[in-house]
Design brief:
The chain is α+β, with helices and mostly antiparallel strands. Helices cover 34% and strands 27% of the residues. Pfam families: DUF1249.
C-alpha cells in the first residue's frame, strides 16, 4: 500500500472513531465539554459546519505554559462527502506549513500528515477507553457580558 493510501485509510478510521465517540454531525457550532472523572476534561469545539465539511478542535483543559494555549490540541476537518477526518494541525499555531514549510516535497508533507493523523487516531482510542463519548458530552453555554 502506498503512503497516500495509508493516510487515506487512517483518515477513514479517524472519522469512524469520531462518529462513534461524539456523533459530530449532530453537534451545532459551539463548545462542548466531556468529563469522565479522571482530571483530564476534554473540550470539543465545533468551529464551523458547512455543507460538505465540519471543522473541530479537540483539546484538554490544560494550557501550554509558554503560550497559554490548550495543549495538546488537534484541529480536525471532517469531509462528509468523502468519509474522511483529517488532522490539519496539532498544537497551537503549528499547521503543516509552519512545521515543514511551503515548499516541502510531497513525501515530507505526506509523512507529516501521517504522523498527525496517527496521533489523532491514538488519542481518539485513548479517549474511548477513558469513557469519553456522547453520554459525557455537555454543551457549554456562553453568557453575554
Amino acid at each position: 500500500m502506498s503512503r497516500l493510501g495509508w493516510l487515506i485509510g487512517l483518515q477513514e478510521e479517524n472519522l469512524a472513531l469520531l462518529q462513534r465517540l461524539f456523533a459530530p454531525a449532530e453537534l451545532a457550532d459551539g463548545t462542548y465539554l466531556s468529563c469522565v472523572g479522571d482530571g483530564l476534561d476534554l473540550r470539543l469545539e465545533v468551529l464551523a459546519n458547512h455543507r460538505y465539511t465540519q471543522e473541530l478542535r479537540l483539546s484538554y483543559l490544560l494550557c501550554d505554559p509558554l503560550t497559554g494555549q490548550p495543549d495538546p490540541s488537534a484541529h480536525v476537518r471532517l469531509y462528509r462527502d468523502a468519509g474522511l477526518a483529517e488532522a490539519t494541525h496539532c498544537y497551537v499555531g503549528r499547521r503543516w506549513q509552519d512545521v515543514i514549510g511551503l515548499d516541502a516535497p510531497a513525501r515530507q508533507i505526506i509523512g507529516h500528515r501521517l504522523r498527525m493523523n496517527t496521533f489523532l487516531g491514538k488519542w481518539l482510542g485513548y479517549l474511548s477507553r477513558q469513557g469519553h463519548g456522547v453520554a459525557t458530552l455537555r454543551r457549554q453555554i456562553r453568557l453575554p457580558g
